[in-house]
Write a structure and sequence with these properties.
Shape: elongated
CATH superfamily: Rieske [2Fe-2S] iron-sulphur domain
Number of domains: 1
Largest sheet: 3 strands, antiparallel
CATH topology: Rieske Iron-sulfur Protein
Length: 197
């Protein structure tokens, strides 16, 4: 057997070069796979807080926005609407909002809000998940002369007042949920971020 003159520096270069190319190829395969497991921008946005301009919500008007895939109502309550809130507490399941899971602590008050003028509530009935309709008219013919205005669920007849509190006799067991929120200014609210944060 003849003694071959082997260039060891070329061999090392070829090993290093082929290892580097293999590493790049492996990274090129793994990165898209790992990236596919990360949440999409849409999924991230679905859970993100939502900023709302309240200057567009006229007195008596309801605005619906989406937060975490759920409808969130913003109602600009008039003075007349607010004056009616304390007059039917005896007809409510939880007038004092004692069920702490239904609202943040800072909204455990008669208006269930930070600013009494604005109701911010998740628009999903606590019975079976239908979306109630906004029925602000007082004494609506189909809801009775004693109807003070509020929300009516057409699926099974649950009724909620203008503080999103459930009336006795409704299939819904609890008040509507008040989401965490905080005011950024007089006309802007951030839904999905706690006022204590």
């Amino acid at each position: 057997m003849s003694d071959m003159n082997v260039d060891k520096s070329k061999r090392r270069f070829l090993i290093v070069a082929s290892s580097a190319v293999g590493g790049v190829a492996a990274a090129g395969t793994v990165i898209p796979f790992v990236a596919s497991m990360l949440p999409s921008a849409r999924a991230l946005a679905a859970g993100a807080p939502v900023e709302v301009d309240l200057s567009k919500v006229e007195p008596g008007m309801q605005l619906t926005v989406e937060w975490r895939g759920k409808p969130v109502w913003i109602v600009n309550r008039t003075k007349e609407m607010l004056d009616l809130l304390g007059k039917h507490d005896d007809r409510l399941v939880d007038p004092a909002s004692d069920s702490t899971s239904q609202q943040p602590e800072y909204c455990k008050n008669p208006t269930r809000s930070i600013k009494p003028q604005y109701l911010i509530a998740v628009g999903i009935c606590t019975h079976l998940g239908c979306s109630p309709t906004y029925r602000k008219e007082i004494g609506a013919a189909d809801l009775g002369a004693d109807w003070p205005g509020g929300f009516f669920c057409p699926c099974h007849g649950s009724r909620f007042d203008l503080a999103a509190r459930v009336f006795n006799g409704s299939p819904a067991p609890t008040n509507l949920v008040i989401p965490p929120h905080k005011y950024l200014s007089e006309t802007k609210v951030l839904i999905g971020e706690d006022a204590k944060a």
